[in-house]
Amino acid sequence: MTFFFQAVLIALILLSLLVFIRVIIGPAITDRIISVNILGTKVSMIIVLLSFITGQGNYVSVALIFAMIAFVATLGISKYIDHGNLT
């Protein structure tokens, strides 16, 4: 069972690298914002998989907090791009 989790972990890391390339060379700012959001989600999934592989359940809470921070950051960046300020 851990072999499956390790294979999924490697696949997620490779996909995260591809998304990171999209963050860098995205044709538009909206593509970059969406890519950063996807990257945050993938990093949260990687943290949860590491939690299952190592058997330490504390990392799940860290992944949940990281996902919430990434979501709020995406909303803030989107509002800043749209309105020019955060107020």
Distance between the termini: 49 Å
Counting H and I runs of at least 4 residues, what is the number of helices? 3
What is the general shape?
Answer: flat
Strand fraction band? under 5%
**What's the rounded overall pLDDT mean?**
90
Estimate nothing, just give the exact number of structural domains: 1
State the gist of this model.
Helix content is 87%, strand content 0%. It is flat. The model has no long low-confidence stretch (mean pLDDT 90).
What does this structure look like?
This protein has 87 residues and is mostly helical. It has one domain (2-83). The protein has helices at residues 2-25, 29-54, 58-83. Helix 1 (2-25) runs antiparallel to helix 2 and helix 2 runs antiparallel to helix 3. The radius of gyration is 15 Å and the shape is flat. The mean pLDDT is 90.
Secondary structure layout plus pairing:
Blueprint: H1 2-25, H2 29-54, H3 58-83
Helix pairs in contact: 1-2, 2-3
Describe the structure using short key phrases.
87 residues; mainly alpha; 87% helix; flat
